[in-house]
């Protein structure tokens, strides 16, 4: 077996790691928040940060570079049209990692990897129940 020169590959070979990180980045762009292990989140964060930085340039070369990184036209379109304009005046730090505890099966540390939203999200207030009218 060929040993990796740049350290461990998150449990598999380099091609599997590349595909896994690409899928994590696409899911993060589409859903704005994903639940994953801490090790995967730390590595995927750099890929997402690069993609958002390219998308802020908003030119054809940047779009092609993001397509090369993500290989998903739908995600790149959402990245350029919705995500990148939010971070126009931000220099970096587009993602955050929130620890949520350990996974019950194998005790792996789990986290939420999410995009930092500049505007606060509105919390939905619970609907008040009223007594049925007679």
Automatic annotation (TrEMBL):
Q: Name one Pfam family in it.
A: Ribosomal_L17
Q: Can you list the GO cellular component terms from the UniProt entry?
A: cytosolic large ribosomal subunit
Q: GO MF terms on file?
A: structural constituent of ribosome
Name the SUPFAM superfamilies on file.
Answer: Prokaryotic ribosomal protein L17 (SSF64263)
Provide the alphabetized UniProt keywords: Ribonucleoprotein, Ribosomal protein
Which InterPro entries does the record cross-reference, listed alphabetically?
Ribosomal_bL17 (IPR000456), Ribosomal_bL17_sf (IPR036373)
- BP GO annotations: translation
**Transmembrane domains' residue ranges:** none
* Tree of life domain: Bacteria
Q: To which protein family does this belong?
A: Belongs to the bacterial ribosomal protein bL17 family.
PANTHER family per the UniProt record, alphabetical: LARGE RIBOSOMAL SUBUNIT PROTEIN BL17M (PTHR14413:SF16), RIBOSOMAL PROTEIN L17 (PTHR14413)
How is this protein organized at the quaternary level?
Answer: Part of the 50S ribosomal subunit. Contacts protein L32.
Protein's recorded name: Large ribosomal subunit protein bL17
